[in-house]
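Need 2-hydroxyacid dehydrogenase's 3D structure for a figure. Predict it.
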Amino acid sequence: MNKVLAVGQYSETDVDALSREFDAAPMSELSRIAELTVADRAGVSALAYKGHHPLDGAVMDLLPDLKLIANFGVGYDAINVADASARGIKVTNTPNVLNDDVADLAVALLIMESRKLTASEAWMRDGKWPVEGAYPLARKMSGRKVGVLGMGRIGREIADRLAAFKCEIHYQSRSRKEAPEGWTYHSDPVELARAVDDLVIAVVGGPETEGFVSAAVIDALGQDGIIVNIARGSVIDEAAMLDALEQGRLRGAGLDVFRNEPSVDARFMALPNATILPHVGSATVETRAAMGDLQRQNVRAHLAGQPLVTPVN
Ligand code: 8YV
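Structure prediction for 2-hydroxyacid dehydrogenase:
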């Protein structure tokens, strides 16, 4: 038996496609798997997962015939890949198809926070323009020195866009990359933060980057800096960043990701110097369709005994 189980909040298009092709009507949460009968769990060889709740060995062990976890998303930090590998389970993700949207959003967040676009729009909607006059001056974004933390596929798309905004590009990653002339490599995140005006975070999530943007990195960026994060909330020492934003030791933040999503720390809601978005980096009709398609291509390849399209392990 080669049954497919789908777990997560899928779009109508994805629900239709998963049901039609794999007879897999999605269940909302991982915790529902435990409610299935032993007979229903037997023979499930592929799990199409869309979510950010931890998927570890304990969940995998509920599905004794599991051979594939196909993740909807490029970041697979919710999946314990070591647990999967130890059980002979392959993991796939959905890289590349979301690079443009996520990079667009990173640049948008930097511009939104620098130019105070949310606040100045509110000024207009609240009727303050004719009464109180022009909105106070914001700050320029083009031409700043920007540090990109993590020069993977998404980091590169962000840096290319920022270069078009005449920004001086600095980056940090595990190794020096083939990059255009004039881009500066730094091996250490504190050194990167010290060299730049603003910092954009594009590293993978998970234990290896937990708290990577530490209080020391935030201090090194300094009080004129803006931090943009489109990666994972876990990458930043969030309490240290909140302290710095509240105390004016950091000018601003543009954030699409947080610790403990969707129940984000209430301190963010009161900050006038943070542009906050509810994890919408890849949330366009076009990109989510492409992500769903790539997830199903991996399930299809697995069922046909063919090489997986975008394997992780
Ligand atoms: C999510 C993301 O996958 O791709 C990623 O790593 O963070 C997002 O695109 C999205 O929220 C769907 O769960």
